[in-house]
User: Fold this.
Amino acid sequence: EAQVTQNPRYLITVTGKKLTVTCSQNMNHEYMSWYRQDPGLGLRQIYYSMNVEVTDKGDVPEGYKVSRKEKRNFPLILESPSPNQTSLYFCASSARDPGNTIYFGEGSWLTVV
Amino acid sequence: AQSVAQPEDQVNVAEGNPLTVKCTYSVSGNPYLFWYVQYPNRGLQFLLKYITGDNLVKGSYGFEAEFNKSQTSFHLKKPSALVSDSALYFCAVREPNSGNTGKLIFGQGTTLQVKP
Assistant:
């Protein structure tokens, strides 16, 4: 079954404590992205990756890092989380052609206190 | 700048009635258009997409959407709503030349409430 898997699904953490949200896809997709969802704003892209070792900033990259060492994995790293990073995060993947469907994970609820 | 608008924060319909969730877009060139649904505590599920061809696109769970180039709209429709259709719906657009970013531009979402 085609899947994008994120972990953890729910996390409460404290300001400044580094955390990583993992993402893995089993569809051999080249493209992977991270989005955050905030009320009234829809989803906004944080970072994206076109392939292994190729990453770039999306629309709201401040405070986040990513890496793409393997094709299937695309972790999102918050080096020093702050309360304004409290949000619902989605990992996504797709094949190269822009007409292809983008598949999303189940989401990770992150609360920073 | 490209953008997507969903003018209604919430749509309320009675079960069995037809439903429409509106979406308009502003992008350069011919867009690729998508609808996604988000059920409570679940991820985004793909419903349907328009790439090219027939303006009426059929998708999952009995939903369909009509692409109207002159009105730059891509409204989601269903002939007969079910209570289980109650969810948050997102319209999104991807520019054909956005291949290197894989980015979708999302609307702000519309909550659909179907009442028995």
In short: Chain A touches chain B at residues 4, 31-33, 40-45, 48, 50, 56, 58, 90, 92, 94, 96-99, 101-107 (CB under 8 Å).
